[in-house]
Amino acid sequence: TSEDASSYLISSLQGFQMGADKCMEIVDKYNEVANNFAIDTRGIGEALQRSAASFNAANTDLSKSIALVTATNTVVQDPTSVGTLWKTMSARIRGAKTELIELGEEEETIIESTSKLRDMVKGMTGFDIMKDENTFKDIYDIVVGIGEQWDKLSDIDQAALGEALAGKRNANALYA
To answer: Angle at which helices 62-76 and 79-94 pack, to 10 degrees?
Structure first.
């Protein structure tokens, strides 16, 4: 419906802290992806409605966020769970414990220190999730960086890393 479309657009504008003058840019990106990939504009909107602010908090721009949502939804085929995956992963990377508990994550699975998560990822893959001591790389670059080493990891390491980044419930969606 047009009401849903407006809601999705407003969520993206607010989540990515964009001005109203960026509406057409967002619509154009949604349409371009929907015309070329296995997701419609509604699916993109639903996923970003849940995750736009989290992507933004994790230094990930709209285009890269749409790419992650689209790629994940190609396999998962559920925009709502795709949005939850990326919201959860953003919170896990940033060590946002309160946000994770609100998402229903089990407290014992939360790596509370970003330095511990950074050390884990770097130790397993050689990839650093940080640009510098105070700034995370964006989620897209983190996924691509880890993905380049993924096939070299043992099944046990893949499972441990997937759970650390996405949580038990979302790890399979991350693998997508």
So the answer is: 130
